[in-house]
Amino acid sequence: FEAAAGGRGGLGNAALVSRARKAPGFALLGEKGETRDLTLELKTVADVGLIGFPSAGKSALVSVISAAKPKIADYPFTTLAPNLGVVSAGDNTFTTADVPGLIPGASAGRGLGLDFLRHIERCAVLVHVVDCATAEPGRDPLSDIEAIEAELAAYTPTMQGDSVLGDLVDRPRAVVLNKIDVPEAREMAEFVRDDIVAERGWPVFLVSTVSREGLRPLTFALAEMVSAYRAAQPEPVARRPVIRPIRAGETGFNVEPDGDGGFVVRGSRPERWVHQTNFDNDEAVGYLGDRLARLGVEDELLRLGATPGCAVTIGEMTFDWEPATPAGVDVTLSGRGTDSRLERTERVGAAERKIARKQRREQSDEA
């Protein structure tokens, strides 16, 4: 989506009052805002991520070990977004999320796999939920685990460089052999349990979300794994503020010849001042000239050989330069620094008032 950030507002004329400028007839314009196109990804943050094939019982498991109420149905991809649940095991509490079903090719985007995989990037413990009662040909608990592990190994977390969790392959694992309330599933789970432990070295739990068998040992074991993982993580180091003082003698701008007899002034302050100036107001233009002169732009232009009337570019504006009244420059070269109100002659001077009083006394004596 498109995000817009407003710039700082300008100053009104009341903020520009000074000892020499009692009633400013101008104001400063506001600065430009920023517009950017951002792509944001929502990633579920959970301690335990339940992963596995569709319809393996992940949502059902979350519903029985926590107070979450996810949608549960007997068809693939029932879960389209992760469901978070808070699990309590004694004095320990952790969050768990059922990641929507993964299939072979998920790391390449098949079946919305990338949309599902991103939700496990921040999980501390990954739990394989295996459907031991599946009747699909070519599937068994060992092959299901190998297929999911292959997708995790092929997936590169988008935030891996900023994450303290490291690669997905290094995360602690556990295996849940689900649906042991079915006799054939129980037999299969007991048959492959030792093979999983011997081959992978992961803890294996036989559970049933229907009969609630094996859930308590599972929750306490996951709580211990999460606690151990948290304790093994390094303490977060607070970012130290970096203060970069301005070097002595640094003006904050630079002036360069443009090759055509003109000059280009670069710097955040003069460019911002130009953007804030209403060039339809002569007083505002004069105020800009005063600010540039105080900053030292005028002196630098003179040092580089700028002459009155040469083109000077600041930001997006190019104008004919008319110097103020620095030392060594004839005041007649510039019309700035004058005030038309001071040139009015309607006001009667002291000498004229003295002559007028003398005439009135003479008229009074004659009368």
Write a short abstract of this structure:
This protein is of the alpha/beta class. Mean pLDDT is 78; it is low at 106-114, 159-165 and 326-338. The protein has helices spanning 58-65, 113-117, 141-154, 183-200, 215-232, 268-276, 282-295, 297-303, 350-366, and strands at residues 2-5, 34-37, 48-51, 83-89, 92-98, 125-131, 173-178, 204-206, 254-257, 263-266, 311-314, 317-320.
Q: Helix segment count?
A: 9
* Radius of gyration, taken over Cα atoms and rounded to an integer in Å: 39 Å
The residue fraction in helices comes out at: 25-40%
Largest β-sheet summary: 6 strands, mixed
- Neighbour order of strands in the largest sheet: 4-5-3-6-7-8
Beta strand %: 15-25%
- Structural class by SSE content: alpha/beta
Shape: elongated
Which segments are poorly predicted (pLDDT under 50) over 5 or more consecutive residues?
106-114, 159-165, 326-338
- Kindly state the mean pLDDT as a whole number? 78
- How far apart the termini lie comes to 92 Å
Number of strands: 12
Order of helices and strands: EEEHEEHEHEHEHEEHHHEEH
Can you characterise this structure?
By secondary structure, this protein is an alpha/beta fold. 30% of the residues lie in helices and 16% in strands. The chain has helices spanning 58-65, 113-117, 141-154, 183-200, 215-232, 268-276, 282-295, 297-303, 350-366, and strands at 2-5, 34-37, 48-51, 83-89, 92-98, 125-131, 173-178, 204-206, 254-257, 263-266, 311-314, 317-320. The strands form three sheets. A six-stranded mixed β-sheet has the order 4-5-3-6-7-8, with helices on both faces. It has a four-stranded mixed β-sheet with strand order 9-10-11-12. α4 (183-200) links the parallel β7 (173-178) and β8. The protein is elongated, with a radius of gyration of 39 Å. The chain starts with a strand and ends with a helix. Mean pLDDT is 78; it is low at 106-114, 159-165 and 326-338.
